[in-house]
Amino acid sequence: MYNTMKVRMVSVTLGAAMLVAAGSAEAAELKIGYVDMKSAVENTADYQQGMARLQSLQDEKIKELRALKEKIDKAEKDLLGQSMAMSPDRLAQKQQELKEMSKDFQRRQQDAQEELGAEKNRLDVSVGAKFQKVISEYGAKGHYDMILPKPVFLYVNEKLDVTGDITKLLDGKK
């Protein structure tokens, strides 16, 4: 979140600098493009495959957690049905076992969230690094002075949009 705000602030500063430069004769020679970063990244095969893997992992974790939750619910139901017939020591033991099962469930739930978050972060870092490399190469080959993220401006002429080109390059298509 901090990095996103930092990028936006730098982008806004660059945008302001461009407006100041627009008054000069040099501004007519600037080659500027913009890219919808979210669209460019999310429409790549790598990102979509990564998200499919992430969804599969999430489904697997949900299935495991549901099974454990059902086991806990059954144990609670059994304990309630048998509590009157149990000795106080046996009742305390069963309650402790149930408490441990609940703790285990909470730990597994937290572990699953952390694992999913880490996988999403790895995907974002991987695709982000590739995105940065592609943008740099595209800008250099195309002799762009600037390629900015789309959200910086309130209005941008569509002819400056290079999102489709960047998505194709990210996918390795020429």
Automatic annotation (TrEMBL):
InterPro entries: Chaperone_Skp, Skp_dom_sf. Residues 96-117 have a biased composition (Basic and acidic residues). GO terms for molecular function: unfolded protein binding. GO terms for cellular component: cytosol. Residues 83-117 are annotated as: Disordered. Residues 1-27 form the signal peptide. GO terms for biological process: protein stabilization. It comes from the Bacteria. Keywords: Signal. Belongs to the Skp family. This is OmpH family outer membrane protein.
